[in-house]
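Journal club side-thread
Mid-discussion, someone asked how the predicted structure for our own chain would compare to the paper's figures. Pasting it here so we can look after the session.
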Amino acid sequence: MTPLDRDAVRRAFARAATRYESAAALQRTVEDRLIENLDRLAAPPARVLDLGAGPGRASAILKRRYPKAEVVALDAALPMLAAASRRAGWWRPFRRVGGEAEQLPFVDAAFDLVFSSLCLQWCAELTLVFDELRRVMRPGALLLVSTFGPETLIELREAWAAGDGAAHVNRFVDIATFGDALIAAGFRDPVLDRERLVATYPDARALMRELKAIGASNADATRRRGLGGKAGLARVVASYEALRRDGVVPATWEIIYAQAQAPESSQPRRGRGGELAAFPLEKLRGSRRKR
């Protein structure tokens, strides 16, 4: 994965906390798609982790769905958890915890369900994240996650390449790499799916304003600071204009969905010591495209 500046990620989402929900239409859509997979649970969970909870929308939904469960919303950006307090009312409250996915502040085997929508792409070390998730999940617990794939914002990436040649858009892992990381951590029965969503905007500036509003800034640790001045930005906007159709410009979002079960604590991890973890192709459901 591209090396990430975790402090930059945390600051961007902290700044976006008050306006995130008004701009996060695509994020809500993906979250709802992931929630549909909860039917796979054989029994209601006793304890649920919403990893990368943001302003707590999914945490509140999970609490309504499982009113007897202890639901924990974890996020690295504390202002996001402050925003989530509006959803954590006295009637069906959920806990809010600050922390990082690579070092979860929980005891072993704490959760029956881990739900994480569009969070893991902001983690630099998937191996560490999946090892930590395995640690805090009870054997047989369900993991439901979504993340961005490498085609995400490909139009904007190419427009910046034409504008100044520098990297201004994050790069994300592909579905096979994501599946390999799950298997290497020992997760059982992984099933992955991929969806390609295409949103439209009046122009490239409108897309960039939305990205800033939701905190999705460039967090590449080797990134060039700034946008290259007015001339560089103008070249990016002009390059993007070549994609205009029917009065709007497109932006692609590749979404990877994954579900798997936590293994027994005695099950060895794979993909270590030079052994290659191979993701079985029959577990890949295929690709869907929606507009």
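Post-session note: The first helix runs from residue 6 to 16.
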